[in-house]
Specification:
Radius of gyration of chain B: 20 Å
CATH topology of the largest domain in chain A: Rossmann fold
Strand content of chain A: 25-35%
Number of helices of chain A: 10
Shape of chain B: globular
Order of helices and strands of chain B: HHHHHHHHHH
Structural class of chain B: mainly alpha
CATH architecture of chain B: Orthogonal Bundle
Organism (chain A): Shewanella algicola
CATH class of the largest domain in chain A: Alpha Beta
Strand order of the largest sheet of chain A: 7-8-9-3-10-11
GO molecular function (chain A): ABC-type ferric iron transporter activity; ATP binding; ATP hydrolysis activity
Pfam family, one (chain A): ABC_tran
Number of domains of chain A: 2
Number of strands of chain A: 21
Strand content of chain B: under 5%
Helix content of chain A: 10-25%
CATH architecture of the largest domain in chain A: 3-Layer(aba) Sandwich
Radius of gyration of chain A: 25 Å
CATH class of chain B: Mainly Alpha
Keywords (chain A): ATP-binding, Cell membrane, Ion transport, Iron, Iron transport, Membrane, Nucleotide-binding, Transport
CATH superfamily of chain B: MetI-like
Structural class of chain A: alpha+beta
Oligomer: heterodimer
Largest sheet of chain B: none
Shape of chain A: globular
Number of helices of chain B: 10
Largest sheet of chain A: 6 strands, mixed
Protein name (chain A): ABC transporter ATP-binding protein
Chain lengths: ~375, ~230
Amino acid sequence: MAPRNADLTCDISQTFPIPLEAHFSCRAGEVLAVVGPSGGGKTTLLRMIAGLTFPQQGQIRYGDAVWFDEQQSISLTPQQRHIGYLPQHFGLFPHLSALDNVISGLDHIPKALRKQRALDWLDRVNLHGFPNRLPAQLSGGQRQRVALARALAREPAILLLDEPFSAVDKETRERLYIELAHLKQQLSIPIVMVTHDIHEALLLADKMILISQGKMLQHGEPFEVISHPNDEAVARQMGLRNIFDGQVVEQDTERNMTTFTLGHELIVSDSAPKLTIGQNIRWVIPNQGIRFNTISSGRLCKSINKLEVLIESVLVMGESSRVMASVIDVGSIINADLPTHLVRKLALEAGVKTTIALKSDQIHILNP
Amino acid sequence: MDWQALWLSVKLSCFTVILLIPLAIFVGRELAYCQFKGKSWLEALIMVPLVLPPTVIGYYLLVGLGDQSIIGQWVEQLAGQQLVFHFSGLVIASIIVNIPFAVQPIQRAFETVPIDIRDAAACCGMSRVRIFFRVELPMIWPGVLTAVVLCFSHVLGEFGVVLMLGGNIAGETRTISIAIYDSVQAFDFDSAGMMSLVLLVFAVSALALTTSMSRRLGGHHGASQR
């Protein structure tokens, strides 16, 4: 069996059949989210870590153990790596009961212990009443928990989750988020979770890597990645829509401030990357950095970076509303998602002129 | 009713199924899961017996396995027995003619096993042999059953190839289809009708059983994958 509580290190690259390059590590007890659009190579990366497919070049290590090394011609099978793997559609064996599914992963322990351990794990995932049910007789959430019990009952070296919440309904998903968050505290193994949903990464992951078209665009803590995207490609992948042009007017490295233009308006950012006066830049502000104030309410924002805007449209989408506003005399369009009750309270509707404030600490200047 | 011919046909069907199905499972699995050069050609070759007239296949087998051929001479030296006009030759011919009927349903059945399940089985630590017996075989069972029934029924009704390669030797190569033909030639329509009815009832029963079991097994397993 593989040593427990070790770190996973992955440095791999390939050009065929799909290009893929990834260099990262995941520490024991840490959840690493692999985020990116469909077809970007996320699942391929997970299958490489599992040993289900092999990269052309590179190395995958678990602690001191080498799982894959193209130069030393080492490529351990999934069976040799001793992993827990939860595929996107759970991969339950349809002809076996929930209990037998969990027992199927326990060939490495004495036969007499298998049933009890499987029952214990079904209990731990709140499925103690369903050991004899076939997967077809279980709900999506229950199937997911059987698959999780099967993966964890093996006491794996690492846990690999491929879009673990994509095949269940919203209510089940919310409940499973909480269960996984609890489970994460109990497990001291690296957990790698593939997801296309940035909110899942923010909710559950300690670290994340962003992959698109086989390239690793950024690696870091989820909040850090979303608030400080490396470049425009990352910003767009993270769903940030408010990306604008600007020109540097002033920089105060002591106070860590940069002032630049948005049309004829001046914007201040609490960051001072190495720039020159007059340099053209691209900058971004996330949704949470935009504050709306109605003129009619009389509550003028104290912040700097106040802009007069005209509401172009308000699209109500249940509890959330998407507000599109143009900066008056500049023309730049700002998009913001606001709670619908706030939109109503502030009387935001198409044709209304109002003021917004951009939080200077949320404005991020993108690398060219 | 030629009971000897019926027994010979059943015996030929059993031998063909027992020898061909394991081979078809191996070939079907490789074709379903493996990518290799010349795969399309191999698949086309497997399908050839479906489109070639049985007499053409029979002719090539007669030439290829006859006492003038290398294989025929080698077998005769080894076993002291010719392949043509002998039961063993009929078995070989039946296997070759029935390859598409065995491989196709089994290959399709393997293709329906989701990759998630095969991946999960490997990650559960199961060996390849254990994955095959514990996961894949129970899931492809309807396909195997279809292949068994198709092959068995097809061998029972085989005429052209059997006649070309085995001739019409009572107790050795005269199958029920040839016995029906003989009866008609001899204007013994009662016997021909009885034997035809036996084949008809068997064919309908076998297909009904296959459809029913496939549906039952398919429904039993399929829902969990949705």
